[in-house]
Amino acid sequence: MIARYTRPEMGRIWTQENRYATWLEVEIAVCEAWAERGEIPKEAVRNIRKKARFDVERIDEIEKTVRHDVIAFLTSVAENVGRDSRFIHKGLTSSDIVDTSLSLLMKEASEIIVADIREMMAVLKKQAFRYKDTPCIGRSHGVHAEPVTFGLKFALWYEEMRRNSERVLKAQEVVSAGKLSGAVGTFSNIPPAIEERVCKILGLKPEPVATQVVQRDRHAEYLLTLALIAASIEKIAVEIRHLQRTEVLEAEEPFEAGQKGSSAMPHKRNPVGSENLSGLARVVRSNALAALEDVALWHERDISHSSVERIIIPDSSILVDYMLHRLIRILDGLLVYPEKMKENMAKSYGLYNSQKVMLALTEKGLTREEAYTLVQKNAMKSWREKREFKKLLLKEKAVRKYLSSGEIEEIFDLKHYFKNVDYIFKRVFGKTANERRSKEHCH
What we know:
66% helix; 3 domains; Fumarase C, Chain B, domain 1; Fumarase C, Chain A, domain 2
């Protein structure tokens, strides 16, 4: 099911064919490094480079007997190379190839995920500016609080995705570690210069100190980063799900021609995409926990991590790629209903102005406790009698003693809530073009 939705680039990375191709890339790079030192004939390396190939079905067949995937791979390659295959895998242990190639795969997957996030950020920025001045009620605990603009929701998500982009780049740097130091990492049968040279060829950094494996805190950081991205995706998905509730209906997922929401009820338009993303986020988070379990291995190495990583690293990479693209489509086509936002704001009778009333009263000399009690009394009456909060205040003698009708009217002016929206947008999206040019001119 996941593969059906996977973009070809990410799906290709984690195929068995590409996994073996990356192993072969590392093996050939090691041969070339040995040849540069004069310890493998250059003619042999040319022959290896020319003839080295593998057959996945043949590897599977060999592995049924040897019960070791790297040996099966090397045997398949050797059948094509001939006698010069004796130089392949010189001084190495299996994890040298497996871990170094896995680093290359995670590095490549990270590049795709960063590109995905940047694509989402472009959509979020577009929607943020589109709805920058669209009023809607802000909610805390699901209850009306004070007004916000719908664009601020997108700005918030944009800023969080920017942090996620930085996290992926940091995780990419952490996992881009190669290891070619032999059986227990002591370089007993291979000089450190080979590792240095091969890592340079492959665009990796040498693992400063290793056992038989690259240390798994690196892989855990990658999986935890993916889990954070999934958590951000779910955060957005949950908001869309709430906004699409019939009682709210301020926004909803795009509903395409021919789409059906329920097998029983033809009227249904359900937030199935967002619900799907919430569910998949649970899988990615669970995989991150498994990655943490992989950090502790016996002594210099066991293989309890190996079976886990064959599932969690490809699956989480593929899932997050898919989740980002599905959410991009939802956000880009999101149906937004400003009139419903105004209608919902009116349902709390203007009570969202309660803090401004309280502050105005304290400025007139009341203690905070006195002002709070007076405002709360009228607020509860507004709820109980379903009457406009402003009208009650205008008739309340204890309030009118301190606030004129004009002052009360001013308090209830919606524009006060949005006076700093431009400031927030500037902090999130940067300075205006004119300000940037002015700063550059000063320098």
